[in-house]
């Protein structure tokens, strides 16, 4: 009875001295961001943002500094949180936005929930899933899974989720960050098949805040990637191929990490598992590769075209 909701919060937050508790479910989770600079002395300059929702809609929630190492790994997509102490601030306008699985959900974009160690010190509780009651009206996590046969018809920058059997994984490579001469992104290429096409998903997987998963992507593992973006080469290079790349909100899961994840209920995920049961593991292993340099998108066939 003492709870408020996100919709009411948006209308009344400026006029209220004390904010009532919130009960929300995490729908999206960003990678962990380090924003430290040599000239600034801050113990733990970390930040992560989440999209949280209740029955009234969805809002961004930002986790700051020393709360990140304490809470980040516990706050998974699907986790239900009780927030008793938090701050409300005007939202940061330049943050990337995940594409919600439920396109009908209302988004509160003008403000965001801020969780910090002080002013006020955040009070966060994780509610175990078995204690979550239907009458709370919390939305379920929804996905936008696509099959490989659907991929060719999708536009550039379309956001989607995929599941497939890994048939190739390349070595880890580095790409220099734009505007940061000494910093690099770490990424690797992977192929995954789902039985709906002769062609695999070609996946450019940047290291998210899941190093344990990123390092263990091997052939023959079931790979799930969420919030991937479609990349089409919009130039006139005829040898280019459509592929998927990770976004700030992407999560990657492999065999051993799937249990209890909300996507296991998705129809396309279950269809893929049924297809895998009909496959010969020995035959699939013959088609797998690991390591090596993978130049992609491929350059033109002749130097004059290049």
Automatic annotation (TrEMBL):
Domain of life: Eukaryota
One Pfam family in the UniProt entry: RADX
GO molecular function, one term: single-stranded DNA binding
Family matches, as InterPro entries: NA-bd_OB-fold, RADX
Protein name according to UniProt: RADX protein
Organism of origin: Xiphorhynchus elegans
Origin organism lineage: Eukaryota, Metazoa, Chordata, Craniata, Vertebrata
Underlying gene: Radx_1
């Amino acid at each position: 009875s003492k709870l408020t909701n996100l919709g009411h919060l948006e209308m009344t937050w400026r006029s209220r001295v004390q904010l009532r508790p919130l009960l929300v479910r995490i729908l999206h989770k960003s990678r962990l961001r380090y924003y430290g600079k040599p000239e600034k002395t801050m113990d733990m300059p970390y930040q992560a943002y989440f999209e949280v929702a209740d029955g009234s809609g969805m809002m961004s929630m930002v986790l700051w500094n020393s709360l990140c190492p304490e809470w980040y790994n516990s706050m998974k997509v699907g986790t239900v949180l009780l927030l008793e102490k938090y701050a409300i601030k005007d939202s940061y306008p330049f943050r990337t936005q995940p594409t919600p699985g439920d396109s009908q959900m209302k988004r509160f974009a003008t403000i965001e929930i801020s969780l910090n160690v002080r002013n006020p010190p955040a009070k966060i509780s994780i509610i175990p899933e078995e204690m979550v009651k239907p009458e709370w009206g919390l939305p379920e996590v929804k996905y936008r899974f696509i099959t490989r046969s659907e991929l060719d018809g999708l536009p550039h920058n379309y956001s989607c989720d995929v599941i497939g059997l890994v048939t190739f994984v390349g070595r880890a490579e580095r790409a220099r960050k734009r505007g940061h001469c000494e910093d690099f992104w770490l990424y690797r290429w992977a192929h995954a098949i789902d039985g709906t096409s002769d062609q695999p998903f070609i996946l450019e997987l940047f290291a998210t805040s899941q190093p344990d998963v990123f390092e263990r992507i091997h052939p023959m593992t079931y790979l799930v990637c969420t919030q991937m973006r479609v990349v089409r080469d919009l130039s006139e290079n005829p040898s280019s191929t459509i592929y998927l790349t990770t976004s700030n909100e992407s999560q990657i899961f492999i065999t051993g990490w799937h249990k209890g994840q909300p996507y296991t209920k998705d129809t396309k995920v279950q269809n893929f598992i049924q297809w895998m049961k009909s496959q010969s593991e020995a035959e699939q292993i013959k088609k797998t590769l690991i390591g090596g340099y993978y130049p992609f998108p491929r350059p033109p066939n002749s130097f004059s075209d290049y």
